[in-house]
Fold each of these.
Amino acid sequence: MRIRSLGTGLALIALVVGACSSSPGGSAPASAKPKPSVPAAIGAGEGALKLVAWTSYVVGGSGGEKIEGAPDWVTPFETETGCKVTVKVGGGSSEMVELMKTGEYDGVSASGDATLRLIAGGDVAAVNTDLIPNYKNVFSGLKLQKHNSVDGVAYGVPHGRGANLLLLRTDVVPETTDSWSVVFDGGDKYKGKVTAYDYEIYIADAAVYLMATKPDLKIANPYALDATQFKAAVDLLKAQRANITTYWSAAQAQIDAFTSGDMVVGTTWQYQANVLGAAKVPVKAVKPKEGTTGWSDTWMISSKAKNPNCMYLWMNYMASPVANATATVWFGEAPTSPEACVEAEKQSPGHCDTFHATDEDYFKDVWYWNTPSKECLDGRGPICTEFSEWTKAWTEIKG
């Protein structure tokens, strides 16, 4: 599984205000700004494709990741297009942004904490979705969102999405638990066995909880926190720290700890819950009633791509039913189209139901990762806490 990390840049500010709102998963608003140019057509593949991607996103083929037991979805693409793929696995969003700035790569699988930075920096280009036939099948809830478009212009093709969930061992924590309060206000009861994701963006999870439980703070967006709101989230996490022995960053580490009983409650991904359930460990994963954070990844083309035709072919391929199903089933996230869900059902029965792929209502209170900046993402102006301060605070929280 992946570790994601954030950063911020001054160029992001103007774009973010136009692209973001105070509701999760909402579409980016359009404006009267001139639209960026996009190609009118693509030709034959250039024969090569260099990608930056999260681990397990580009597997097989001549230069994809080689993972034991994983399916190979790169070889069929290479055979069909003649584009030989090589991948650089990113260690986090900040690293992936820096790699894309070099101009050495044709495309990237970017999370919402990187997409707007890449757009603002001019490192990725708008796309002509008419040249990507499979784009028309992508769920509408993933198109032209505030993390993958600006002013109504698409900057990529969705790859997959997921929600950060609450995981609990039902032999220790009541199975009826449905609130983040169990890891925040009620964490003392499970002192030493509470866990949380080891990542600065986890501050947003605390903010989501405060949105629901401390309305006087008037938090409208968990990634847009003024000084008072930010302090409240940080204080909540500092109090939680006393109940946490270990933060997790790798999925397998959390799986091992829940299996042994060293962890009994904390934030997770559906993947870990599935693995633990299959091993008969008594666990349950829920999306708490306060809502949650999550991710939605996008394939984006470099503005300096040396192989733009191959990248367009790749974006279309990764939105195709079989490829998208294979990649998202392997990784453990929701496919991006009804057609991909049909294929996913063949590979892993019940997959799309488990990951709520077709249930847009499920994602209405999932706040996809975004980049905190001084210019508030909820439109309040330059009064919010930028990401460098989140990083400092996270170091203080963990001690």
Amino acid sequence: MPAAVKNVSNTKRLPARIRLPWNDISTSIIPEFQAKFSYAFLVANECCKSIFSMLSQTDSPSRLVIGATAFLFDRNAENVGSDALREFSMTETIVARALTLDSGPGSATARLILAHGAGSGMSATILEVVSELLAERGVAVTRFEFQYMAQRRQGGSRRPPPPVEKLAAEFVVCLEEVRAGSARPQRIFIGGKSLGGRVASLIADRAFRDRHIEGLICLGYPFHPVGKPAQLRIAHLTELTCPTLIVQGVRDPFGSRGEVEAMPLSDRIRFHRAADGDHDLGPRGNSGFTRKQNLTAAADAVKSFMASLSDA
């Protein structure tokens, strides 16, 4: 099933406040919030500037989604913002969500929020294929793009991704938006490919304790940098309490089967091994396995993992 791009190209559909010029917003709308919501004002100020910057720079506004951050405007000024955002020190982060892609049946009872890897955006082939396979299995998928990658699409620099703590706050925002925008109750799972899965794993325990998600799903977790097996990224995985599925290639250079099996990981983590798979779960040509087989098996494993939790 093809992914549905959320469309905001028709400015007539935008809320009146969004259509106002920046000066009008600054003089007629924001002051009424500023006195009461000092922290929220700072965040909203950056969000508005980010939104107008994106709309003015992109040649494809139909690909943009304005990420509403209304959840930051708590009913009480002293409670503005989420604990998870504060936990990751995100007061300097612009929390507008740039791009999202939704796929899967509208009647789906489970939804996976899926983030991309460090070098490829949400349109990466592996994410598109996995999203289609999960849609065939009745699972809805929301792919979203971190801001640094969205800026690359608009001609920005190809600097390395920002620190994972900063990306974690963006994931928190996306999770809140998906939960708030769901038309019907859905079982929510979070995860991602490589870096996206690592970022999801950083917020998983808190989100699970708050009953915002039911599980974590990682596609090719980067247990260590390539060629640097001593630089492990597993400190938080040793005591993880959120139910987790990691789909990992047997010969993944970011953590092969032999390497990972020797790591002291939480017993809440389950594994599905992609036969002869690399970091993208692809096998070698002479292995007797195919990429299609591995990705299909990965989708089956994700569906079974979700089902096992609903039966628990």
Amino acid sequence: MFPHAPVQVIEHESHLTQRQGPAKKELHMMIQPTNQYSQTNRAKTVFDDIYQALTPHAYLSQMRRLGYQIAEQARPFCIAAAELIARSAPTWPVQMLDVGCSYGVGSAFIRFGCSFEELVSFFESRAPRGYYECTGATRAWLNGTAPAIDMRVVGLDASENAIRFALDAGLLDAGISQNFECDDPNDEERAWLSGCNLLVCTGAIGYVGKSTFRRILQHMGHSAPSQFGPLAILTALRMFDVSEVAQAFEEAGYVFERLANVRLPQRAFADDKERRDIIHQVRARGLNTAGLEESGVLYADVYMAGSKEVQPLLREAMEGVRREAPIFSRQVEVANAGS
């Protein structure tokens, strides 16, 4: 099983490089991109400091304080898409690209089946603060956890430190720290992208936009093409207009659509100012905030993308999750009350 294979990373002259994959690659820090969401993003609280820490302790502590839950809420949709790929293209192992992966949280939820509380509890009570002690303890913990699904995970994030930790801790098989809003992927990055057949993005839209997805989709899935083709599951806060992201997918040959009647809570507002500003942004898009953002929580829509031939199967799988998962009952009721 992939989760129990040793992570292919080495340390050399104080730099982290990848040994697994097409070639060695040094990780570089990605600058904060400027994209179509720059103005809208000003309404959100900035958490740059906790994303730059060497270990996830501060990040998880802050997210727990804010009731962070979007990645865990989106997990059943991501797993359903991965299982659809595994059933329909069994000769093409599932390789997930997690866009905005931070410290490998998406992998912890989807690949290893951890809950947010389990993750927080581990880092609060069992994971040392020292970097090497922490990565070693995390790796040992994960190796003792039966994976929820057999997959490989490639992470893309702005924070080099977060990517470095996720690699050393065994949460990622490969990590990319690059600014795809401005720069094209290099040869090594293209090789990793070409092997991915599932794109997951839970909460990163706004930090990344159409340019990132265009550059990813130019290469995604090319190394092992099949009639089935890659799939994508994304969430986006309702403050963001995703029409240009949708266009990027459509230009690459995907059908991009929102899953009806589902709104997923992402986290609580950090303060009153963020609440006022984001509610203003959502209302400016002509959306009803009653029972949603007005309850003190940021809400996100769920989007799915696949080829024209595959989209009906993906839609059916997503609708199945919506109907069967009890955690979505409140979100569905709220969504029906206000669009």
